[in-house]
Amino acid sequence: MSNSTLFYPQSTVTGDGAGIVSHAGLALVTRTAEVAGLPRLLSDALTPWRKDYATHDPGKIVLDLAVAMVGGADCAADLAVLRGRETVFGPVASDPTVSRLIATLADEPVAALAAIAGARAVARKTVWELAGEHAPNHRIDEHHPLVIDLDATLVTAHSEKQDAAPTYKRGFGFHPLLAFIDHGPGGTGEAAAGLLRAGNAGANTAADHITVLHRALAQIPGLCWRAGRKILIRTDSAGGTKGFLNYLHKRGLSYSCGIGMTPAMAAAVEVLPASVWTQAYNADGQPRDGAQVAELTGVLSLTGYPPGMRVIVRRERPHPGAQLRFTDTNGWRLTCFVTNSSRGQLADLEVRHRLRARCEDRIRAAKATGMTNLPYHDFTKNQIWLAITELATDLTAWTQMLALTGTDARTWEIKRLRLRLWATAARLARHARTRRLRYDQHHQWTPVLTAGLHRLEGYRTSR
C-alpha cells in the first residue's frame, strides 16, 4: 500500500494546444459594449485624433483598454491579454501605438475628455432604455430619487509624477474627486465623473465639488438644467460647505451632506431635552441599539447656509475601545448631516444618508479597475487614463445591468466577477463559416455566462 503525498493530480505539460481562448468570459463585456453602441460612439468622438492612414481606430484602442481594465489590467502593457485573439477581440494595437494615442489625446486634454464623456453619456442613455425597470432612473421622484454620491480618495504614486504631492494621510500621490450613480441595494453603481487632482488638493473645496457634480449631471439621460428633487446628492462632510450647499439649492437638487461637528453644535446637543431624541435604525429598518437621532435646526445659527436646510444629529455609544473625539460629549459619539428633505422620519433620513457608505464600495471597485495605478508621468496622460477607468467601471455596471439581471452576479464586485466569469477560458470552434465559443460545460458559472450572452443577443436583435 502506497501513501501519496501529492495533493493535486500530476499531468504531462505541453505547449502545443490550439483553439483555446483565455479570458473568453470578457466576451460578455465586449457584447455589452456593442449593445450600448460604444464602438461607433467612441470611433466618431475620437475621429479628430485619428492619423491619416492609421491602421487602428482610436475608439477601438480606448475601448480595448477599458475591456482590459475590466479584466484586471493596470497599465497599457496589460493589453497583451487581449492581443493575438482577433477572432474574439479583433485587432489589438501594439504598446507603442497605444502610447502614441494617449500622448496625442493628452495634447488636447479638455477636448479629448469631453469626447470620451460625450460617448459615455449617449451609451448610458441606450443602456438605461434597454434596462427598463432595472435602470436606476426608473420611476424616480422626490421620495425615490436617483442618488449621486460624491467622494474623494487617495491614489498612491510610487515615483515622481507631475502634480503628485504629499497627502493629508502622509502619503504621496493624487487626490481625485469622484461621482458615482448608485444602483441601490439590488445593484452596484456607475462612475458618473471624476476630477484628477494633486495629492495636496483640499478635501472640502466647493469649486471642485461643483465641477464634478456638473460633469456627473451631464451623464444623466434626459436631465435638464433644473433636475429637481428627483436627484439626490450625497457627500461626506467634505461636501458640507456653504458654497456647495448653496449651489445645490440653486440647482433645486435634493441633498444629504455630512457636516463637521462644531463646538456650537456639541453645546446645542447638550441642552436638547430627552423628548426630542428618537430611535435610530439599522439599514434593514430595525432599531439600532444605543443610537438616537434628533434635529438641531431650530437651535443653531445658520447664517450663510441655504434656506430650507435641516441639521440632523446622531448620537451613539462608541464601540468598546473606540476613542472619543473632542466634539463628542458625555460619552456619546456625535455625527451630523444636513438635508433639504422636508418629509420623512428623522431615522429614515439618517439611514438614507448613512447608506452613502456604498460609495466606498464603488471606489474600491474603481481602484481594482485601473485606478490603483496612474501609470504615466504627465498629469494630462493620467487624466486620460482616469477617464478610461471611468469607462471600464461603467462597462462592468452595464454588463451586470443588462446581462446579469436576475442573478446573484448582479451585485458581485469586480474581483469576484473576474474569478468566476471574466477569466473563464473557452474553445474556439469553426463550422460552416461560423465561429462558436464553447465554454466548459462543467464550469459552475458557465450557465450564467451563456444566459447573459443570450440575453445580450436578444437586445441586439430587438433594436
Automatic annotation (TrEMBL):
Q: Which Pfam families match?
A: DDE_Tnp_1_4
Domain Transposase DDE: start-end pairs: 5-457
NCBIfam families cross-referenced by the UniProt entry:
transpos_IS1380
The entry's protein name is: IS1380 family transposase
